[in-house]
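Entry, Tuesday afternoon. Goal for today is a structural model of the target with pyridoxal-5'-phosphate bound, before we commit to ordering more compound. Inputs were pasted exactly as handed over by J.K., no edits. I checked the ligand SMILES twice against the vendor sheet because last time a stereocentre got dropped in transcription.
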Amino acid sequence: MKRYLDFNATCPPLPEVIEAVSRASASAIGNPSSLHWAGRAARRIVDDARDRLAAHLHCESGSVVFTSGGTESDNIAIHATTAAHPGGGTIITTAIEHPAVLRPLEQLQSPQWQLQQIKPNASGVIDTQAMIEAIDAADDLRLVCIMLVNNESGAIQPAAEIARHCRTRHIPILIDAVQALGKIAIDATQLDADFIALSAHKIGGPKGVGALIVRRGVKIAQLAPGGGQERGRRSGTENVPGIAGFAAALGIIDFNDYRPIRDHFESRLCASIPESSIIAADAPRSANTSLFTLPGVDGETILMQLDLAGFAVASGSACSSGKREPSHVLRAMGVNDTLARSAIRVSFGPGNSTADADALIEALLQSRNRLKQMAGF
Ligand SMILES: Cc1ncc(COP(=O)(O)O)c(C=O)c1O
């Protein structure tokens, strides 16, 4: 039996989304930039989706720029802001960002561009005061980047407080809200960030489509200049079916519904494997996520055994799996490399039940015992 328990990596497309994508693929035959009837029909689909996303996030439709996903949204915000400062400066971010933020920032690093990464506390949460102090101490600060919900631990970050401080200091801020959509309420007007990055596939929308919410008045240089779509902010013919699917996914899944399953799983895990430890257990966390360590075993090996038994779970960050480096998030939290290598992430979503959680506990126990026997325990 196959059990999918990796919703933070991606949420399988919802039936409503598949229907919307296929309807838009069949009906929107024109290019949304064309002035004729076929173009206008495609344009209507894009504009309607833009209005729905704006209403969902409580922002203006004009703030929504459709992109190919979270990675592109983060990159546009970073490059657009830094391109306006040829003389360089300082960027402050956190040590627990997704690679979609960390990699472009690391690439920028040069004698002109300094990067400061604020570490989280042992529970995986960035200390608001520490970040504000770093912001106040930097005199040539060009950009602040912080995520709203961490993809590995689920820990909710003080992005709203940091954004409020940045506004008073007139410092641009990017909030990566890719893992927050469907998990915590997002009010773009209240957040008032210069940029908010989003991705459709985390909420059951299509893969390869997302959005960047750009605060009114913020100018952005195009990463890939071209036909000037999205009001000159992101060139390229819009992914009309993908955008329709993104809009169709909005508001359907509430990952808070999976808190009882996650909590049931964690209490059984701690009872059956007492040496296991739940990461970020005492932090405010997204309700569907459980990241834990199993001392003495290798997370990747457990993951492969679970895969053979039909379970789809992740070890550390799914986006960087395949790489044998321990999770940078766990490292930043002060977890040692050996323990970090034992980490497994389970993220629940539609279709899951407590029976899946129970079956996973049994499979974990079997894998762990097998590995311990092999290691001569
Ligand atoms: C916090 C965060 N930011 C950015 C991304 C990248 O989004 P996408 O897969 O749409 O490029 C992810 C994907 O896992 C993520 O979790």
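The two ends are 30 Å apart (CA to CA).
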